[in-house]
């Protein structure tokens, strides 16, 4: 009986460890899909340029994600026909959370180059792909 309890505890603990990583992968893949859905609905002409983190070092990932979330607030729909899709996808991207690893980053959002909204979204997708690989 004692062996059975120990086996059950080991099985439970190992299954919990294995489910954490796939959830993160699914979450990031959903974010990539959302970014791709948003790209064609974003206004790209006569708009404010956005601070766009590119290739942030590991200790600056939290700052980069924060910059992208701030930039999402400034995006505009391309036209009124795509407004509902635009609103739904931006809501998903605004609610994305990324845990802070606790390391300090020297750069701020303002230190990154400003780019057009579609380039901004491509860089955001690139960052999410990097998080998927980690």
Automatic annotation (TrEMBL):
Q: Which residues form a coiled coil?
A: none
GO MF terms here are: cytokine activity; cytokine receptor binding
Q: Which terms are listed as keywords in the entry?
A: Cytokine, Disulfide bond, Secreted, Signal
Task: Enumerate the subcellular locations listed in this protein's record, separating them with semicolons.
Answer: Secreted
Its signal peptide is: 1-20
For this protein, the record's Pfam families field holds: IL15
Q: Which GO terms describe its biological process?
A: immune response; positive regulation of natural killer cell mediated cytotoxicity
User: InterPro entries in the record, alphabetically?
Assistant: 4_helix_cytokine-like_core, IL-15/IL-21_fam
Looking at the record's lineage, which domain of life comes first? Eukaryota
Task of the protein: Cytokine with immunoregulatory activity. May promote the transition between innate and adaptive immunity. Induces the production of IgG(1) and IgG(3) in B-cells. Implicated in the generation and maintenance of T follicular helper (Tfh) cells and the formation of germinal-centers. Together with IL6, control the early generation of Tfh cells and are critical for an effective antibody response to acute viral infection. May play a role in proliferation and maturation of natural killer (NK) cells in synergy with IL15.
Q: Which family does it belong to?
A: Belongs to the IL-15/IL-21 family.
Protein known as = Interleukin
Q: What is the lineage of its organism?
A: Eukaryota, Metazoa, Chordata, Craniata, Vertebrata
